Amino acid sequence: MPFDGVPSGWSEDLVRLRVALDGVRNGWKRGAIGRQTEAEHCALGWLLVATDWDTEAATRLALDYVYPALPSEYQHQRRSPMRAIYGFNDSRGRKRGEQLFADAVKLAEAKVSVVR
Amino acid sequence: MIDWTFEERLHERIDARKLIAQRLTPRQRDVVRRSFRYGDTLKEIGERDGVTTTRISQILNTSLSRLRHVPEQAVVVARGKYDLRATPPPGFDWEEFRRHQAQLIEQREARARRRFEDAQRELAALLETEAPKPVYVPKPPPEPEPWYYELLKGVQPWQPLAPVAPKKWPGNIEPWFDLSRVPTVADLQQIGFYAINYFVAIRSPMRWGWPHMGHQGARIDCPRTADAVATGLQRLAKEIPHAVRFSTHQPGVPDGVLGASVGGSCVAMRVCSLQGGERVSLEVAWDNIAE
């Protein structure tokens, strides 16, 4: 545990989510993870970029922060969390994608601030 | 042993009494005292005062709400009655309880692990199956339907001068024999068959009228009626006028080479000029026609 008293993984999550949020703001795309390209990705693609294409870390971020930030009608669909995020990204526009990641950042910030 | 906190607790009790004196009415104070200090049940208090237990409960709730601004002082008052420590019921098995809790925790962790693995698998599948979506190319607007002249309209005196769109119903599909290909023997057989049928249908007194005009009785049992026959005969007259002979076998009515008089509605015109009860034949010379 670092000297600020927050478990190191949580701060890292916050940083990664902010990176993803910045990416969605600047290069959002519908329906393409975009492994080959640099500039534009979908929501999951930006999560992967922020985690340096580490699928495990990206999955954890998606499950812990992005999926809980989804609107309830998307959460309660029967498909998997990743499919829900993917579908939300495709059916809604860039603004809603931004909002999704902003909410996820808020969740991470709340988690960190509770410990502080 | 000296109780060092006695004085503090004494002050707390005094403050609580002051608070009760300030905030509660005598009736509320009485209910609180009897409930908390003497340990009477609400039912007993109600019976003594001649009111219902519900009413006593209301009074007690009201008074506690008014004291709630300083809850610890109210708690001091209530301390004598309620022991707030968690006390398990007699016969409670702590080991079983802990085992059960551990099992619940284990289940929860297993579920979280499974969910994580499923999600990771989903993500891997999405990465695997990701293919570039086709670029959206707007489709060109469909070309308009080809227009053609309805040849039998020539029968009508009110023939329109402008081309009309083909009607779309099963009995009037586009002419199967148009001017776009060389006629064969089969084509001519069909044309002859339809022409005879058409003639007979027109000449029958039971279904007098124009077969193509929608009279129920005038329908003949070939799908292409007047349009087709007229188109076919017109084509014959144009291509091989010497090969087709239309005969009524009547002395007064001259046989005609169709090509001499065909003008789109030749069949109808000629048929109308005939009388009832005659034979009609259509002769086709096959020699000049491709198989």
Provide mean pLDDT of chain A, rounded: 86
Count of all domains of chain B: 2
Taken as a percent bin, the fraction of beta residues of chain B is under 5%
What share of residues are in beta strands of chain A?
A: under 5%
Count of beta strands of chain B: 3
Class computed from helices, strands and strand pairing of chain B = mainly alpha
**N-C termini distance of chain A:** 13 Å
In brief:
The complex is a heterodimer of chains A (116) and B (291). By secondary structure, chain A is an all-alpha fold. Chain A is built from 6 helices and no strands.
Describe the structure.
The complex is a heterodimer of chains A (116) and B (291). With 116 residues, chain A is mainly α. Chain A has one domain (14-115). Chain A is built from 6 helices and no strands. Chain A has helices spanning 8-26, 43-50, 55-69, 72-75, 81-91, 94-115. In chain A, helix 1 packs across helix 2, helix 3 (55-69) packs across helix 5 (81-91) and helix 3 crosses helix 6. Chain B is mostly helical. Chain B has 2 domains: 6-78, Arc Repressor Mutant, subunit A (Orthogonal Bundle); 151-288, no CATH class. Chain B is built from 10 helices and 3 strands, in the order ααααααααββααβ. In chain B, helix 1 (6-23) packs across helix 5 (71-78) and helix 3 (42-49) packs across helix 4 (53-67). A 3-stranded antiparallel beta sheet of chain B has the order 2-1-3. The chains are: A mainly alpha (116), B mainly alpha (291). Chains A and B meet through helix 3 and helix 5 of A and helix 6 of B.
What tags apply to this protein structure?
heterodimer; A: 116 residues; mainly alpha; B: 291 residues; Arc Repressor Mutant, subunit A; 2 domains; 10 helices; 3 strands; 48% helix; 3% strand; elongated
